[in-house]
Amino acid sequence: MTAIDTETTPVRTAPDFGPATHLTCRECGAQYELGAAYACVECFGPLEVAYTFTGVTRASIEAGPESIWRYSGLLPVAAYAKDEPNLAPGRTKLVRADNLAATLGMTAPLWVKDDSGNPTHSFKDRVVAVAQSAARRLGLSTIACASTGNLANAVAAAAARAGQGSVVVIPSNLEAGKTITTATYGGTLLAVKGNYDDVNRLCGELIGNPLTESWGFVNVNLRPYYAEGSKTMGYEIAEQLGWRTPEQVVIPVASGSLLTKVDKAWRELTSLGLIEAADYRVFGAQATGCSPVSQAYAEGQEVVRPVKPDTIAKSLAIGNPADGPYALDVVRRTGGAIADVTDTEIVAAIRLLAEQEGIFAETAGGVTLATFQKLLATGGADRNAETVLLNTGDGLKTLDAVADVVGPTATINPSVDEVSQALQ
Ligand SMILES: *Cc1c(COP(=O)(O)O)cnc(C)c1O
Ligand SMILES: [Zn+2]
Q1: Which tens digit of pLDDT belongs to each residue from 314-353?
Q2: Among 114, 118, 130, 150, which is best to mutate for testing ligand 1, by the most ligand atoms less than 8 A from CB?
Q3: HSE toward the beta carbon, residue 387, CA cutoff 13 A
């Protein structure tokens, strides 16, 4: 990793990197060449992709493929090419949720951006596709990750599709719906006796070890590219609303990356003139059993104190969230808030969304809806403002969350009499 002296070195577009020009430190602004780097050598701040965008119009996007690659003019790597197989995620449904809106007493439209429709049933397919393309350009043949579950699915499947090696590292206590599926896609799956923060620390230690020379850890040393994939969630919502932003959006927070990137996407679209400038409020949602960002918000802090996670929302169980402070910035700048909800409230919200709209969300989706309900009740969010809720994963992966509280109306013998009794 080499620091670029911006006084003397003109910033160039690397040939294979689409509109991305360099990496820049979010804290001190130091610039670096595009590479498998994620932390500033000057100040240890996180690195972010910087761009020069050219020729991106609504028409050029609309003429693109039915996947995240229609936004490749706004992503760090050039468009998905035929010789570069991947799962082409994205273009998931934005579902108008009128039943739920009525139940919540809303007078404005309510939408659910349902990312369970992605190839491995969570929003992680978006970030992995972008990181995988970056790995290819950087000559890293194996893709790896530290995962709370959904990322494990996405990495193993993407590697399978591309005929590539994968190494997935997870806490050993994850849901069967995530470990069994990941193992079925193949590749190396390492279940670590510890929590996600232990897994993440281990992966950090592995980087630089000769063992992992040809590996790209999508959410560690490829994190700047990975994180940009989350912008496609924001682009899609704006495009699906007819090229505009909603007034409110509620986003589940694990590391906080997705939340910051939806905001970044909307700021980019605005500055490129692809949407009209309009105010929007970004809300963050956490589980009380792992709510370091929500706690910092409530206390008016700028730093996020790590916690030890204990919640059924395992996909969000990151006790030391890398992008927590940036998520706080976005929420405060846009007039939003971050709140958290109990496991009981999460389960109730999973059921409410399923009963009202026919959408079966994973625990993270329950966190999002329950947090919105709480924010409506406390006046933190507005019933009269058009709102988008992000459902980032599929309830079939987290069946245990509801297994104890739902079941058949009756278990009967195959007889009309017994049906009749059961109906009474
Ligand atoms: C990873 C994940 C998120 C949020 O991730 P960030 O680390 O905050 O970007 C949200 N929902 C689900 C289901 C996830 O798997
Ligand atoms: Zn720095």
Answers
A1: 999 999 999 999 999 999 999 999 999 999 999 999 999 9
A2: 150
A3: 29
